[in-house]
Task: inverse folding
């Protein structure tokens, strides 16, 4: 087990409906020392890639992305969730269905922050059905930039997102892939990597 | 002029209605090297304070807070904005009026992440009328924890927030205080610190 899987076992909580609560270290309270290990691990896994920018999505991707960026020496851009698109300046947009909140968000990135020269590493905390990720990939493509890779903290391996993204040919590096959970016993089972 | 004021002069944009756009380095694209300087400066200014936790608010406070936290060796908690309060588990809440979006948000922090033993440094990107900050202070007080200080990147010195917070007796450290702006010339005038 790696450091993130160990932390999930120790501090994560399994709830009914395949919900994994990681809010004590990942997406409400944030364990910065853990984020530093995650950033270093992504740097190792994407060592051969020339990254010019990290792209993430508000809110819980931001902290991880900023700490990861220290390993790559690049700026971070976060996509904003917006119900009313404010097109002041020009924006790249994508429609994203939220699994947690069961609504459709428009996510936006100002055009001036992504160019065809950019080699983008996408970072996010969770991957489930992959809707947010596909929105981010769409935005990078709209800019004519290149997705060099995708770094995810926790992938729900029993949902389709990871498979879809890998089938599209992207290097997807999830630091923990949960294959199943048991809400009664609190057990979490990880995919061997 | 300090490093943040210099960056504002170089990369900020003044818009009609006393709007200062800093989205190329602070709150949409994020300059992580700049954030590191900000974190080190807050560590210097709060050197005598025993900080156990950093509290911020989504979304644009998160990146700054996470990088700052590396100087203090503490976790970060971010308050979430929520229209529908989900009281699963117990939450501290506060009502916050948004200056930018002209609506009222409820901000929430899970009770388990703030305790009476906590000595909290509040970090945020902007201080204008101070509503968000007062909400965060209220949440810390609800927890019986102590606000040890407040670190702000950019304070709009011509709005009431900074004065109100200082009058309440808090150590408020804004790295740049804008006293006035001129949308025609693009000039920004900073308060001497």
Result:
């Amino acid at each position: 087990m790696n450091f993130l899987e160990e932390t999930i076992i120790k501090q994560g909580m399994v709830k009914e409906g395949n919900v994994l609560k990681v809010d004590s270290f990942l997406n409400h309270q944030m364990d910065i020392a853990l984020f530093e290990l995650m950033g270093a691990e992504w740097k190792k896994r994407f060592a051969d890639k020339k990254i010019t920018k990290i792209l993430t999505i508000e809110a819980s991707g931001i902290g991880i992305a900023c700490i990861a960026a220290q390993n790559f020496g690049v700026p971070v851009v976060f996509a904003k969730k917006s119900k009313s698109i404010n097109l002041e300046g020009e924006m790249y947009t994508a429609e994203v269905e939220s699994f947690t909140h069961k609504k459709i968000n428009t996510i936006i990135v100002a055009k001036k922050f992504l160019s065809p020269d950019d080699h983008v590493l996408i970072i996010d905390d969770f991957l489930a059905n992959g809707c947010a990720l596909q929105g981010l990939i769409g935005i990078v493509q709209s800019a004519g930039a290149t997705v060099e890779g995708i770094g995810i903290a926790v992938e729900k391996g029993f949902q389709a997102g990871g498979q879809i993204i890998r089938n599209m040919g992207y290097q997807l590096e999830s630091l923990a892939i949960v294959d199943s959970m048991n809400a009664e016993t609190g057990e979490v089972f990880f995919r061997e990597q």
Summary: Chain B is about 30% helix and 35% strand. The CA atoms of residues 157 and 179 of chain B lie 5 Å apart.
